[in-house]
Amino acid sequence: MDVESGSKFIVATWKYAVEGSLDYVKKCIKRGVSCGVYLKDKGEFVSGILLMSNGMMGSLYTDESFRKKGYGRLSMGSLMKELTQTGFVPCSTVEMRNEASCNFHEKLGLKIIGEMAVLKYMPSVFDKKPTEAV
């Protein structure tokens, strides 16, 4: 996946993107393990997935107007193949409330083996010195 256009596509479609996400996604792509579908005639990415820094596949997205064409399956399948060939066991994250995503993962042969919670540090009023907090 091209670093510039691929990272812009992922960040623009990633619902969890925050300030700094573009740099993070660029680093993931530069590691060389990401896959996507780029349509030359459209001049744009229509689907993409990353190997996240935690070693899991994530941020899979296919543009709504290009769904049901196999592009998500191609993106994720290519990444799974790449990981398997390099000795890694492909694993992914999925929101359990997203039935379509759960079904998609199962069709690719992935099994739900557990649940996890993700906590993220967000700067807040507690990071300020007592004299700065109001």
User: Sheet with the most strands?
Assistant: 3 strands, antiparallel
Strand order of the largest sheet: 1-2-3
Average pLDDT confidence is 86
Quaternary organisation: single chain
Order of helices and strands: HHEEEHH
Give the strand tally: 3
Task: Write up what this structure looks like.
The protein is of the alpha+beta class and 134 residues long. The protein is 34% helix and 15% strand. Strands 1-2-3 form a three-stranded antiparallel β-sheet, with helices on both faces. Strand 2 and strand 3 form a beta hairpin. The model has no long low-confidence stretch (mean pLDDT 86).
Summarize the topology.
Layout lengths: L2 H11 L7 H10 L3 E6 L4 E8 L5 E6 L8 H15 L13 H9 L27
Antiparallel strand pairs: 1-2, 2-3
